[in-house]
Amino acid sequence: MKLKAILITYLTLLLLATVLPLNSAGEALNENHVFTLRWDYLLHALVYAPLPVLLAWQLKKLWPAVLLALALAAGLELIQALLPYRGFNMNDMVANGTGVLMGGLLTMTF
User: Fold this and answer.
1) What is the rounded distance in angstroms from the CA atom of residue 11 to the CA atom of residue 102?
2) What is the rounded CA–CA span in Å between residue 37 and residue 102?
3) What is the dihedral of CA 47, 91, 63, 19, to 10 degrees?
4) Cα angle vertex 46, ends 33, 88, to 5°?
5) Could you tell me the CA-to-CA distances from 19 to 27, 78, 83 in Å, in that order?
6) pTM higher than 0.85 for the full model?
7) Measuring CA to CA, which residue among 28, 34, 23, 14 is closest to residue 99?
8) How far apart are CA 96 and CA 48, in angstroms?
9) Alpha-carbon distance 44 to 17, whole Å?
10) What is the per-residue pLDDT for 28?
11) Is 50 within 8 Å of 101 (Cβ atoms)?
12) Among the residues of the chain, which ranges form H helices?
């Protein structure tokens, strides 16, 4: 039951981060770089890495969880193409998928 609550909370936070306008008056994350990668790409990967782990715990199967997580990661990024105050970015989608795959690989080791 706790795992289900954690998964629902996590998915809700992902959805809110996707649809809410998060631009601030300060410097944007896409202007910062780490090892020639934009900081927000690394952040996307880190944010999506727990998703397949949580889904695998809930579904009790890894590969369906990874596939569902990849679909969610792509779908949430695609939603931003429909919102006038957010922007779709293919590189963000790739970073989301990379995070999902990293989480899936991490899950395989346990």
Assistant:
1) 18
2) 17
3) 50
4) 70
5) 20, 11, 7
6) no
7) 14
8) 6
9) 11
10) 57
11) no
12) 2-19, 39-48, 50-59, 62-82, 90-108
